[in-house]
Structure formats: C-alpha cells, structure tokens
Amino acid sequence: MTTVTDRDVARVMQEYGGSFVRALGTAALAADPVNLKKIRDGWPDYWAQYLRMAQQISEVEKQASK
C-alpha cells in the first residue's frame, strides 16, 4: 500500500468532499500539529474515508507512471 501524508488527505478532502469536508481539508492544511490532531480526532470517519481515497489515488498515479 502506498503511504500518503496528512497533506495528501487534506487535498483529497478539498477536491472531492462536500462543502463541509472541503472546509475541513482547508483547515487541516492550515493547521499546526495540535489542531490537525483535533481535526483528525474530531471527524475520524471523514478522515478514514479520505485517507482511503488518497491511498487509492496514489496507487493509480503510481501505476500510471510506470
């Protein structure tokens, strides 16, 4: 499985989420480590969903670059 960063997850949230999730992604990109943890801990279901999406996108991009 491809490793993705918190920034990758936040960018996927911004690109593919609804208005609330897009706002969370924007906040996550601006957050310091303490506030990023609050976002991740406050909305774990969203974070997990977009983490999976970021991993899938990364895998597709990896395969496409071969």
> Biggest β-sheet: count, sense, barrel?
none
Helix-strand pattern: HHHH
Q: What overall form do the CA principal axes indicate?
A: elongated
* Alpha-beta content class: mainly alpha
Helical content, roughly? over 70%
- The parts where pLDDT drops under 50 for at least 5 residues are none
Radius of gyration over alpha carbons? 12 Å
**Arithmetic mean of pLDDT:** 95
Structural domain count? 1
Number of strands: 0
Number of helices: 4
Distance between the termini: 16 Å
- Strand fraction equals under 5%
Describe it.
- With 66 residues, this protein is mainly alpha-helical.
- It has one domain.
- The protein is 82% helix and 0% strand.
- The chain is built from 4 helices and no strands.
- Helix 1 (6-16) crosses helix 4.
- The longest helix is centred in the last third of the chain and has 21 residues, at 44-64.
- It is elongated and about 35 Å long.
- The model has no long low-confidence stretch (mean pLDDT 95).
